[in-house]
Amino acid sequence: MVDADGEVTRLLERWRGGDPDVLESLIPLVYGHLHRIARGYMRREREDHTLQPTALVNEVYMRLLNQRKITWHDRGHFFTFAARMMRNILKDHARAHLADRRGGPNAIRLPLSDEVAWIGSSSEEILDLNRALDRLEQLDQRKAHLVELRFFLALTMEESAEVLSISLATAERDLKFSRSWLFNELNAEAKVKAI
Amino acid sequence: MALNPDAESDPGLEPSDLAQRWRLTEELFHRAMECAPDERTQKIAEWTNEDPAMRAALLELLAPTCAWKS
Description:
By secondary structure, chain A is mainly alpha-helical. In chain A, 69% of the residues lie in helices and 0% in strands.
């Protein structure tokens, strides 16, 4: 679990209390989780991927270290922030990859579970996914956060529901609807590009 | 796509209307998912009798669910 023993919650309370050193304790907890994601990447990765899992984890780690001015309100805020950070890193990398014109398909693998295996992993597809998520956030912020937690931070449904303070049943309903909506949005983008 | 926050996609829809429409679409989507697959189209036609845009949006949303385990 992301916070089975409440350690993240306790550390965030200390953070809010003004303890400047708490970040050094907090980040390793997330770092461990990110490493588990990285191992998931390794099972899916091709050797020619330009963004290696360890590099991705290190990038997240460095960006978290630079967030000293942010006041995380609670555990949910912290993890949704981390998920957004992961998403932004992948988006930045996809943009750079396209700009370099060195990329081909499968430049990056997202930690997507089999249930969303239809989402591609090329740089263009990752940028399409980002645009679709931006639109989803405008319509329904909770669903966008849920997708980010599941897709970019690889939290389980139980963990995601806990972070968002919703029931597991609600999370499952949200994801079911979001999955269909995203599928159609991405298909629509593909059709527009094909014209 | 019938439900999109972009103004170009939904000309004339106020944000509050869009939010209400989003909630209704979601509710009908889940109701449809509870129906047997071969009954969904008919049920949706009944629920959206005077709203062809809603009907199209729902059918679009439900189409991919046939391909994956719900």
